[in-house]
UniProtKB/TrEMBL annotation:
It comes from the Eukaryota. It comes from Polyodon spathula. Residues 37-134 form the Cytochrome b5 heme-binding domain. Keywords: Endoplasmic reticulum, Heme, Iron, Metal-binding, Signal. This is NENF protein. Gene3D superfamilies: Cytochrome b5-like heme/steroid binding domain. InterPro entries: Cyt_B5-like_heme/steroid-bd (IPR001199), Cyt_B5-like_heme/steroid_sf (IPR036400), MAPR/NEUFC/NENF-like (IPR050577). Pfam families: Cyt-b5 (PF00173). Belongs to the cytochrome b5 family. MAPR subfamily.
């Protein structure tokens, strides 16, 4: 009898798990739409307004850093970095106003390595991507940048967004 009860429980577990797996297979994956941000759009998410998400761009990728409100929110230590593309500041580990830009010209090899490390191991690992800066996706003349490679957004294509 003990074996048959154990077999029955195993069978019930199998049925429950397979029905759960089937439900997961048929459930659409929830993805938030990816946005294209101008500098003006991004500036609205600077952590100054309660209830508003806090966004920050690094290497043209816009991250929602709202979960780090204690670091990036109003009056917080790193609030200067949000509402803009702060790539240079991240590379130099600086909060100087002149470094709060996407410009990476003149950075040392060591700073570029630090930028890549922080980009991958901090921002991409910790915060959701909500979009891209228009500068990353578009050339100066407004044409699509063919070298653009969207990170972690398999459903995002330039064509769908324009």
């Amino acid at each position: 009898k003990m074996l048959s009860v154990q077999m029955y429980l195993t069978f019930c577990s199998f049925i429950i798990l397979s029905s759960f797996a089937q439900e997961l297979r048929h459930k659409p994956v929830e993805t938030k739409p990816v946005r294209l941000f101008t500098e003006e759009d991004l500036a609205k998410y600077n952590g100054q307004e309660d209830g508003q998400p806090i966004y920050m761009a690094v290497k043209g990728v816009v991250f929602d850093v709202s979960s780090g409100k204690d670091f990036y929110g109003k009056g917080a230590a790193y609030n200067a970095l949000v509402g803009k593309d702060s790539t240079r500041a991240v590379a130099k580990m600086s909060l100087e106003p002149d470094d709060l830009t996407s410009d990476t010209s003149g950075l040392t090899e060591e700073q570029m390595k630090a930028l890549e490390d922080i980009f991958i191991n901090v921002y991409k690992a910790k915060y959701p991507i909500v979009g891209y800066t228009s500068r990353r996706i578009l050339n100066e003349d407004g044409t699509p940048n063919k070298n653009f490679k969207p990170e972690d957004q398999p459903n995002f294509t330039i064509k769908e967004e324009f």
